[in-house]
Amino acid sequence: MHGPAVVTWLLAVLATASGVYCLTRLRGVAAACTSSGPGTGRWPARESDAAEALMGLGMAGMVLRPGILWGWPYGLLAAALLVAAARPAATGLRAHRLHHAIGALAMTYMALAMASAPAHAHHGAPAGLPLLTGVLLLYFGTYALWAGSRLLSTPAGPVRVAGAEVSRACRLAMGIGMFAMLLTM
């Protein structure tokens, strides 16, 4: 990333925390699946937590050590998610898979754009294609606003920290992180 060091480290910590939280949720969902038996319909939750854990930890790695190497696994993840989204499924699951596919494609794009940018171009021309970067900024900015509004629209009453709210906060954090990474390209 081409930004202040403190922003880079804060973004890495935020992405790591989100990724680790999703890994712990994945472990909890896996335990619930094995205890309740096969065919319980918990696969979508496992898929979502796995994709979010990969995205969070990958964002942290890409922030700290940008390079073309990050593009390959996220390109494959994007292809798998696009194929999965093309299969007949519930509308919400399809939209979630498409969101993760867009995130994985954005990670691939950033890895390739940052690798092709000259090392001395910190304040020169932007890395990547400005139109594509702008479209991705618009998408993730809108997603962050939408996710934030969903997080704020919890019922009135005592503040409680439940799993659903923490998951929404992690998704919001990753959306903001993706926006910040694109903004600094």
Q: What is the fold's blueprint, element by element?
A:
Blueprint: H1 5-36, H2 43-64, H3 71-86, H4 91-116, H5 130-152, H6 163-183
Task: Please outline what is shown here.
The chain is mainly α. It has helices spanning 5-36, 43-64, 71-86, 91-116, 130-152, 163-183.
Whole-number total of structural domains = 1
The percent range for strand residues is under 5%
Q: From the alpha-carbon coordinates, what is the Rg to the nearest angstrom?
A: 17 Å
SSE pattern: HHHHHH
Ends distance: 7 Å
As residue ranges, the low-confidence spans are 33-41
Globally, the shape reads globular
Helical region count? 6
The biggest beta sheet, please? none
Query: What is the total tally of β strands?
Result: 0
Mean pLDDT: 80
Helix proportion of residues, in percent? over 70%
Q: What class do helices, strands and sheet pairing give?
A: mainly alpha
Key terms for this structure?
185 residues, mainly alpha, 6 helices, 0% strand, globular, membrane, transmembrane, transmembrane helix, DUF5134
Descriptive report:
With about 180 residues, the protein is an all-alpha fold. The protein has one domain (about 5-185). Helices cover about 75% and strands about 0% of the residues. The chain is built from six helices and no strands. It has helices at about 5-35, 45-65, 70-85, 90-115, 130-150, 165-185. The radius of gyration is 17 Å and the shape is globular. The N and C termini lie close together (about 5 Å). The relative contact order is 0.14.
